[in-house]
Amino acid sequence: MTEPATAPPDAGTPLLSLRGIDKSFGAVQVLHGVDLDVRAGEVTALVGDNGAGKSTLVKCVAGIYTTDAGEYLFEGRPVSVESPRDTAQLGIEVVYQDLALCDNLDIVQNMFLGREKKKAGVLDETTMEELARQTLASLSVRTVRSVRQLVASLSGGQRQTVAIAKAVLWNSRVVLLDEPTAALGVAQTRQVLDLVRRLADNGLGVVLISHNLSDVFEVADSITALYLGRSAATVRTRDVTSSQVVELITTGRSGELGLSPATAQA
Amino acid sequence: MSTPTDRTTADDRPAPRGDEEAERERIVELARATGGGSTLSEPAPAPTFRDGVTAYLQRLRGGDIGSLPALLGLAVLLVLFSALRPDTFPTALNVANLLVQASSIIVLAMGLTFVLLLGDIDLSAGVAGGASASVMAIVLGQAGLPWWVGVLAGLLAGLVIGTLIGLFVARVGIPSFVVTLAFFLALQGVTLQLIGQGGTIAVRDPVVVAIANGNVPVALGWVLAAVAALGYAALSLLRWAGQRRRGLTRDNLGLVLLRVVAVAAAVLVVTAVLSENRARVPSIQLAGMPWSVPLIVVLLVLLTAVLGRTSYGRHVYAVGGNAEAARRAGISVQAIRVSVFMIGSTLAALSGIIEASRLNSVAPGSGGGNTLLLGVGAAVIGGTSLFGGRGKVVNAVIGGLVIAVIANGLGLLGQRAFVNFLVTGAVLLLAAAVDAVSRRRRTAAGR
């Protein structure tokens, strides 16, 4: 299943590109000149140990945090990102670990929450249900029988599916998934990874934040490893082994790859 | 998906390169068009009557019981009291009385439904009604202004009270229990001051008095009943037909028809009973439904539409279900929280006005005592959850009827007041227990 992506690592302009991102909270600098590239049609895995800065970087991408320094490029053009509203306009959606679904609403209602379709001032349930069905069908979702069941009745994998479909519904270009398989069993992890792969196959840029290297090696085209707030390395998945990535995560370097010894030890 | 493919970015996508590339694109297109085996790409299957019943039973088992216990309880109570007091309980006169008694409770419970949907509580709703009614009484009696000015002033008083409560809860961040407890005490002082020590203000305006004491002409009553029954039938069937035409999830037609017939039967039976002459003296003609009945039906339709058919209503449910999810979806949780208290207190004011109309007066104790508990009881007995996120306006109507039937029936049985308190308290506790247990079942059924 490892995806041998044939595009050369630097071909074309990345859909989303962060260059030299710095971010501090008070006296603590969390990100030091971090780079991240997201290409359309590819899954980019973001790995790193606890405290490496993955969540901070995701929040910078999402516009929840503003960066202190660095460039934010979308389709090669610098853009100014001040709030989540700006990133939503660009078509960047984040699926957080806690999914943020309302148990007391059904799938359609959750997918359109806050962006309901209206006709003459009242909710246009028909259109919303049709769009929800089409979106789930386009992602080849087989596990959901009816889009009118309450989210409370769904399994963990189905919830994740709904959260992802919700992010895809808005003509999004880039989807960031924060630990989508963390709480799932084997079969459900399988469904979600298939879905992640299909998102990229549908032409989206996908960022997968994960601790699970077997998941990463299964779906990702490239891997960006963070180490203590620095980009340790960005590699093509087919060029590296799992143990090299583990080294990158734990020590910031692996053979020729990664940070210089001096930086890694700092 | 496992075949190696060129993934070039949009910027330098090359021109189609021969058959292989074209073939791949064709397959991707096909997969998208067919949904790759997802059943959701086909129209939803037509549900059979049995499917509908099974789905409903499953919902019940999953803890989503709605107003079923209240409807069953109402039926049992009606049969019980009719059997125990066949001469007085099931008479046109008593049914009319009962509905008037229920009116103010129902309207209060409708307002509380909005507050409860957010998982909050408004302990001051009863006395807010009393204070608003005294404002109306003063405008009508002492200032002598027309009825609509008085009613508007009363409703405005409720709106102001609700806005204040909402701001304290949402902006300052005090739990609603504490804020409304403070208002419960303070508003009694306001009412006392407005009315003056020991006195009552009479309400004599003919229009206001007619809300609870006047009757709709029999012919007009029948027209309204027909409009209500046919309107419900038309809306249900049109909605069903639209869903079928576009291949969407829908109920079984048999179940839809069953509901339409049940609603029409209830409307027509009540109208028929209320259209009988219920005067005790043969020389007087007393017939027609009390004006508060169509008032409640209008509120029911209006508020149900607000909760079920507008994005505002959807956001109320979302905030009640998961405030954090609502916030991330761009919903202003604070604004929603303030708004439910505004709606709650305004409807409480209307409830107070109806009560003032029924009693022809406002007293310092108006809206105090057990008024609030009856309102909360009505909402909860009807099936609105105390934990937020679940509930409908119609639950308030059903629950309000249960409460009113208990009070009315026990009164006819000649029971003393303490029995009434005990029974109502026990029923409220039972309803809250049912709510808590079914919530546990929902949590267990989910995941």
UniProtKB/TrEMBL annotation, chain A:
InterPro entries found in the cross-reference section: AAA+_ATPase, ABC_carbohydrate_import_ATPase, ABC_transporter-like_ATP-bd, P-loop_NTPase
Q: Which GO terms describe its molecular function?
A: ATP binding
Q: Where are the transmembrane segments?
A: none
Q: Where on the tree of life does the source sit, at the highest rank?
A: Bacteria
Domain ABC transporter: where? 16-253
Q: What keywords is this UniProt entry annotated with? A: ATP-binding, Nucleotide-binding
Q: What is this protein called?
A: ATP-binding cassette domain-containing protein
Q: Which organism is it from?
A: Pseudokineococcus basanitobsidens
Q: What is the lineage of its organism?
A: Bacteria, Bacillati, Actinomycetota, Actinomycetes, Kineosporiales
UniProtKB/TrEMBL annotation, chain B:
Q: Which InterPro entries match?
A: ABC_transp_permease
| Pfam families cross-referenced by the UniProt entry | BPD_transp_2 (PF02653)
Q: Which CDD domains match?
A: TM_PBP1_transp_AraH_like
Q: Does the keyword Transmembrane helix apply?
A: yes
Biased composition of type Basic and acidic residues is found at 8-24
Q: Indicate whether Cell membrane appears among the record's keywords.
A: yes
Q: TM spans, by residue?
A: 65-84, 96-118, 123-141, 147-170, 177-196, 216-241, 253-274, 286-307, 335-354, 366-386, 393-411, 417-437
Which superkingdom does the taxonomy of this entry point to? Bacteria
Q: Where in the cell is it found?
A: Cell membrane
The UniProt function text for this chain reads: Part of the binding-protein-dependent transport system for D-xylose. Probably responsible for the translocation of the substrate across the membrane.
Its recorded name reads Xylose transport system permease protein XylH
